Amino acid sequence: MKPILKSAKLANVCYDIRGPVMQRARQLEEEGHRILKLNIGNLAPFGFEAPDEVRQDVIMNLGDASGYSDSKGLFAARKAIMHYTQQKKIKGVTLDDIIVGNGVSELIVMSMQGLLNNGDEVLVPAPDYPLWTAAVSISGGTPRHYLCDEQSDWYPDTKHLRSLINEKTKAMVIINPNNPTGALYPEEVLQELVQIAREHQLIIFADEIYDKMLYDGAEHTSIASLADDVLFITMNGLSKNYRACGYRAGWMVISGDKRHATDYIDGLGIMASMRLCANVPGQYAIQTSLGGYQSIDDLVGPGGRLTRQRDLAYDLMTSIPGVTCVKPKAALYLFPRLDPKIYPIKNDQRFVLELLEAEKVLVVQGTGFNWINPDHFRVVFLPNTDDLTDAVGRIARFLESYRKQHLG
Predict the structure, then answer these.
(1) What class of enzyme is it (predicted)?
(2) If 371 and its partner were Cys, which of 84, 127, 221, 403 is the partner (CB 3.0–4.6 Å)?
């Protein structure tokens, strides 16, 4: 039989957050092992539920959710998103500038497919949320990774970013707050990125899904609030701030200089129509979420559960010999570094697989986020304090064995 092959468009696409190591974890679970999962920012399994009033709104409106909505989304949902952009000081957003999607993930792919021709290039951070790189590749584009500098709180290396720009560069992706590093970019960094986009007529795609998961009193600035002469596509949704990953309710907001982008904006409308509409029950959660009590503030404030777990995970991880980490200012993740002199790792996917086999702890290797060296991994600090302590203790035990094995 002639083999049936996957599309060549998938040749450079990977999503190791749900990749082969996770598949091995599933096999181990089927064999009866308990796996401590520090790999995915899926909040519900760790006891972080969507707010009661949000769930009630979805339930109450199910009777009206059987049919398609407008391809861009329900009026009430988009009106609430428009009001939210005003709170974030993003100017000039109308209802027509908002498209609701089945989570930000769908909108990332739509936005790239609607923009890119074969050979077009997009600047993507390294490390990144790997769906951005995958979406560029599957849309026929070429991702060009600009480095973020661990020595500077993981802020973008703008000198390196500038060096990657050429006549094929169409856009720049900014993930702020950042996954996987937990970095939060100050306004002066964002202003510099806007200036680069302005000079080279680049679109800015801003992934701001963690904009309320902020620690130690930090504040988030939407980059689209800083200029009106650059085209911005800002992505956000309910998955993280409102612990509603499964509702698949996200949105994109088009703002800034739209005058020269009417054809692209028309293309986004075509893409929205082709998938008919976003999940309607999930859309009914948007208005109540954005307008109601912001319970995320209790989780990330002083003494809040996420703050306590971040501090615990950071303290435990950085107490391991040869492990350093920039303390995250936002989001759900640590991105620790393993000193290559102490941990001479050649293949970090094999490293995390060995950790899984030995200690039944599941993490994601740094190269899964398009990081350049096999010396980082991402840890999710969602488990409760007992499980976190247990998991990081197992990582420490594995690393001690690794040191002895490789250094004598």
Answers:
(1) transferase
(2) 127
Torsion of CA 308, 330, 18, 30, to 10 degrees: 10
Distances (CA, A) of 306 to 125, 237, 246: 26, 19, 20
**Residue keyed to tokens 């908002």:** 98
Parallel, antiparallel, or unpaired: how do β-strands 36-37 and 98-101 relate? unpaired
| Whole-angstrom distance, CA of residue 242 vs CA of residue 248 | 11
- Written as six digits, the tokens of 152 are 């500077």
DSSP characters over 262-326: HHHHHHHHHHHHHT----HHHHTTHHHHHHS--THHHHHSTT-HHHHHHHHHHHHHHTSTTEE-P
Q: What is the pLDDT of residue 179?
A: 96
- Positions of the chain with pLDDT under 50: none
93, containing H or E segment: none
- Is residue 333 left, alpha or beta, with left meaning phi > 0 and alpha meaning psi from -120 to 50? beta
CA distances to 39, 139, 287 from 117, rounded to whole Å, are 33, 7, 36
Which DSSP symbol is given to 97? G
pLDDT, tens digit, 9 for 90 and up, residues 61-104: 999 999 999 999 999 999 999 999 999 999 999 999 999 999 99
